[in-house]
Amino acid sequence: MNSINENQNTDNKETIRKSNNPVITDVFTADPAAMVYNDTLFLYTGHDEAKLEDGFYKMNEWLVFSTVNMIDWQSYPVPLNIVTFRGQRQMLGLLR
Q1: CA 3 to CA 15: how far, in whole Å?
Q2: For residues 67 and 40, is the Cβ–Cβ distance under 8 A?
Q3: The pTM is what?
Q4: Contact 15, 6 (CB under 8 A)
């Protein structure tokens, strides 16, 4: 089955219908962590934005996806990015 992107503008969420592997193919993701809550599987991943010639990874943000049936995947707005960490470090006096 090919992927079908359905743009649903409810809370900036997008529904992605997939039945193949990998399930997330529109962005590069890394190091997924899965958690189940109330019959929904949430997948937390890093978003690798490095160019191929960089030879290393570049994680500036982390992403969240969810599914209730392992076919229909919903993406969410970016919940966490590198600025979040910098702001926390400044608040704690670790960055000057």
Answers
A1: 10
A2: yes
A3: 0.66
A4: yes
